[in-house]
Amino acid sequence: MDFSEDNTKGFVLALLSSGFIGASFIIKKKGLRRAAATSGVRAGVGGYSYLLEPLWWLGMITMIVGEVANFVAYAFAPAVLVTPLGALSIIVSAVLAHFILNEKLHKLGILGCVMCIVGSVIIVIHAPQEHPITSVQEIWSMATQPAFLLYMASVTVLVFILVIHFAPQCGHTNVLVFTGICSLMGSLSVMSVKALGTSLKLTFEGKNQLIYPETWFFMLVVATCVITQMIYLNKALDTFNTAVVSPIYYVMFTTLAILASVIMFKHTTLLSAADKSWLLRNNFWNCCELLPNPVCLWEWRNICSLLIGAGKG
User: Where are the transmembrane segments (predicted)?
Assistant: First the structure.
């Protein structure tokens, strides 16, 4: 794929974003540990003492910088190009966790990170050129099409089930519960960020989109999703190793964000048959990044057992 100027800007911003976000995981983890040692109440069991910890706020600021870069990247490039570049955040967090948090990165973990990067690079190479968007109302019409409304309803139901039923029972023993909530909400936040970023880009170009209520609605969705993600990501980081949380969160979030993007923006209609084949094949490759980690395999088995048990109950 030949990169357009906008795609190149989105690509560079997404790389910078992933570096900041990967580092923020480690800084926030250190802050969570320090807050738990001071107050005796961990974030994983409902404590909020980390809000008084300067180191956690440093990590939060680092993450905000990364998310702002990510936000701007979505205004220039399609989600199927920007989202897979989050692979870099896994490498940054895994390497820093190895040296700073003493969470050892073994050979299989290294293999998983390499597979993740290779899959992401191939997805980026075969990402589509984006259809020009001229107004926020055009995005609104995409967001209110039946297929995407069904996706949003499904995500909302799944999040409520995870929060109300699974989180109290097994959230502290199964990493997929907290990361699942973050990933599901994240897929909606990506679409809203894409809409809001495009609206602001058009506004700065002289086509004011702030006069439309749809712009403010997307802003409300972004705020809701980001706050929810922050709460449950803190719980996941406080309860489980960063080396486990980062890859699982990345794969689930990336897969769901690409799925949401395909449904809402119909990016696959802009791809050649060969590019579609590569995109599907290498998104599967990205998911296989989990396989080298036996902890992740065990968690997949546990969540399947829980879902089956709930169905029988």
Answer: 12-27, 48-65, 71-101, 108-128, 148-168, 175-196, 216-233, 245-265
